[in-house]
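Example complex used in Figure S2.
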Amino acid sequence: MSIEWKEYAPEGEFFDEVFSSPGNPRQPAKRLISYLSSLSEDDIQSRKIAMEATIKEMGVSFTVYTEGGNIDRAWPFDMIPRVISRTQWDKTAAGLRQRLKALNMFIDDLYHDQKIIKDGIIPEFVLKQSKNYRKECEGMSPRFGVWAHICGTDLVRDKDGQFYVLEDNLRVPSGVSYMLENRSIMKRVIPEVFENVNIAPVGDYPEHLFDTLVSLSPRRVAKPVVVVLTPGIYNSAYFEHAFLAQRMGAELIEGSDLVVKDDDCVYMKTIGGLERVDVIYRRIDDLYLDPEVFLPESALGVPGLMRAWKAGNVALANAPGAGVADDKVVYAYVPDMIRYYLSEEPLIPNVETYLCYEEKQREYVLANLDKLVVKPANESGGYGMLIGPHSTKKEREEFARLIKENPRNYIAQPTLALSTAPTLIGKNKIEPRHLDLRPFVLQARDSYVTTGGLTRVAMKKGSLVVNSSQGGGSKDTWIVDTGAAKGSGKKSAKKSAAKAGQKAGGSK
Amino acid sequence: MLSKVAERVYWAARYLERVESTARLVSIYDKLLFDLPRRVNLGWYNLIVINSLEDDFNERFSVRDERNVVKFLLGDESNSSSMVNSLKAVRENIRTTRDVIPPETWELVNELTLYVQENLSGGVNRSNRHEFLDSVIKACQQIVGLWFVNMPRDAAWEMMRLGQNLERADMTTRNLDAGVAAILQVEDDDFAVNARQIIWGNVLRSLNAEQPYRRAARSSIKGPIVVNYLISDEFFPRTLNYCVGEMLTVASNLPQNKPVVAVLKKLQKDVPAAAEADSLGEEFRDTLNSLQMSLGDLHSVIGTTWFMSEPV
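Predicted assembly (820 residues):
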């Protein structure tokens, strides 16, 4: 018995990524579904087991802080990929580039002339009360005027099938290693399907990241020293830090491996003595970077690092202070920023956002807490949110109080009808589950967008929370070119080659 | 190369060597006890003594029987050099050096960890012990083989070799000491010659040295010849002489090597003298003990020279 795909019922009001109606896969997913339909229940089951073993052996893990010492929770993964057509993706990628470009111009403007405030596009107090504005960065001019070199934008699809930007993550966005590992898991577990579908590869991200980082080097040397700065093995993204360092051939270091000397240069402690460092891809939050300037008790950072950065002797990616644009109130102004700096219309819209500091909008929010999602302006990881339709009266009262106390710190958005995709539940059932998408965008002199991104899926029925720390899983994301499927000629050539090989072997 | 990474590669290699040698030690001992005459009073507890773990063991167990000793050596969480803890240390060091070690290492270590987790109880019980230990040893050899064929001969390689050879030198002295300690318990009677042969044969096998010994020494198994071979043979890669020579070559390739090279040169002088022991008694045990101390000193000089650790 195989899976009954005909019985898969995308729920009416949501956009389903794979099926346009029961029994009808969307064009880019047709070959995938016809392949999956050919698998028996046992096939599916044995592949699922193989997949879980693969994940353990590959050591793809993440850490949940609430689990105490366990830093090896296996990565939750669903084997049915999410499919997007090439044409739609290309448009989306252009929109992501446009957005990051404007955001970087905004950050650079904020730390210099603040024209956007003077011209009345963004009110001054938004900036004044931003937790992530760093006075220490005023007047700094990082190379290419770029502050946020690596960005992990969260996209969602609403019921109209349109992508919306939900969040810009400009501080230390994570997840890209899982995007890459998801693809290698799929290649191991269901290799056959890759022969028949034109799936765009995703593996070149580390190359682009490396080139981006190298281009930031303040020293014009042939081989700048690039390092990945991690808080250490107990950080939830340590797996990713090690993974990226390995794929880039960069050193993976912790704060204690670095020193800043009197010449304001950064050095790492090597077996041959001190060696100068040019570019630091830091995966540590601003406030922990340098105890001389920020939190004096931080042991994760490097004393003097800000001094070295300000003297232009080391590049930091992302630059300190870039997180100012990560504020969810600032987010509401991004479409205006794109118009202001680029004189273009935004290619990807924002999710409608209510700013609680504006009286009328606040009144609307307070009156409709049961329908809205309320988010604090500066949290990440899905913490500190109120999801109206799933909330209790007590929670709503609590949020009403919080909003009134500190309106600048809260925004609200309508509860989105997040799109769904078929997900394997239990042994052989396929059910719709909600998901989002986090592509990664790089910018230095040029910009780059990953092919697709990390698809996160809420494994619980009806849930909208996709964060892996809160029971979310993930799927491989396929950008499929429907124009030209791989010909069958190639396949048969392969087969005959294999036969010839067998013969040669046999005659020995 | 980053000092911290150098240190972790060094420890990864040491611990991997320790996993393998612990597995072999238990597996060989098992067979030794079957062969010895009953009247030779050699217990499992001897393995605890070899590894200088008496205090830790006695804190944990009161009965010095096979089950407790094997459990303590293989699976005990409180024994920092038990096989599972050594393996854990390998994994943590590999996790944090994935940028300089062949990437497949991470997967192999994960596979081994999963295997040990699932099969440990069978290894502690006698029934599946052989198969279990054999699989562990093979998995370790697979990793070392991977390094050997794939690692660039750069600083990470040298650090790996340094850790591996230091651990081996240490293990060889411990095994020799164990041999002497066992011999001293053999009563001088009709069975003595036979018992001595069994014990020294066991020492050779614990170090995977039986066949190379026979080919090189061209002698049946005799205490002084075995001791001489395991200390001073220049070809077998677990003899003290060989390990010290390797470390000297490795150290010479690394930067700022003077203090380490000096310690190694002194060791190279001391080692052959040890092989000329007249009698294999307490005096020889003292010699072995002082060699072990020198290896400990070598470790701390390596630390201050390359790992930027504070002098002990």
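Residues 485-508 of chain A have pLDDT under 50 and may be disordered. The radius of gyration of chain A is 24 Å.
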